Amino acid sequence: MIRRVAVITPASANRSAHLHRQREFLRTVGAPRSEAGRASDVEVEVEHIEAWLDADEPAASDLSVQLHVPPGPYGLRVGAGRNAAARLAQSRGADLLVFLDVDCLPGPTLLERYVAASSDHPDEILNGPVTYLASPQRPDSPSDLAAMTRPHPARPRPRDGETAAATSAQYDLFWSLSFAVTPAVWDRLGGFDEAYEGYGAEDTDLGRRARSLGIGMRWVGGAHAYHQWHPSGSPPWRHLDDILRNGAVFAERWGEWPMGGWLRAFLDAGAIEPVDGGFRRVPAGS
Known about the structure:
This protein is an alpha/beta fold. It has seven helices and 13 strands. The strands form three sheets. An eight-stranded mixed beta sheet has the order 3-2-1-4-9-6-10-8, sandwiched between helices. It has a three-stranded mixed beta sheet with strand order 5-11-7. Strands 12-13 form a two-stranded antiparallel ribbon.
């Protein structure tokens, strides 16, 4: 039996160095020859699909299939890019969709663990651990990653080769940095909501929708991804308007605002103020 895996990456030119390293790691990691621990012979084919989100067309690459999803009126259309890439992957026969953000490197067993978990749990969203690399850490190959592994402590981390079902309260820990679903699960979810443009909230929205639809979510031990360092702010000031706009969309649907820690930081700094159950920028001169 052949399993066809599509690795889907939303990409942009300002992350070109990260993307180049991701391409090389995917080429090196390749595909597992068979599902771990199984007697049946399962051949796995991997295709990398990049959804380019810039206004300009991407430069061609021999290592990936590319499509162009230009920005909308409010910024990069990350959810729309992932959705378009997933449609393309399905049209090309993929039976597992692995979403890996452009900042993330695949660990040596990421694909193998997702393939195995999808065989056992084909109706669930699969989430692997994510390690945030520090600024000096620039791995040259997947073999460098073991010494750098320190998954984010906010999320469960089953032992390598094991999985654990997410509790209802853990659906808000869904991160789109690295996850995998079968096409059947993706179709049930309906993809990312394209009303979210620019930064924030589209992944929390997807997690809430999965829970509302009764779709299971599972933590996959050993499916490690490694987020490459880049400059960022806390709170992310350059994304303030995106957070207010996308937060309002989320609040209308789910009855509460996401990204509460950042909103509190903006409130404490006097940059935003409460209004009509939501938030707005403090008018200039106030």
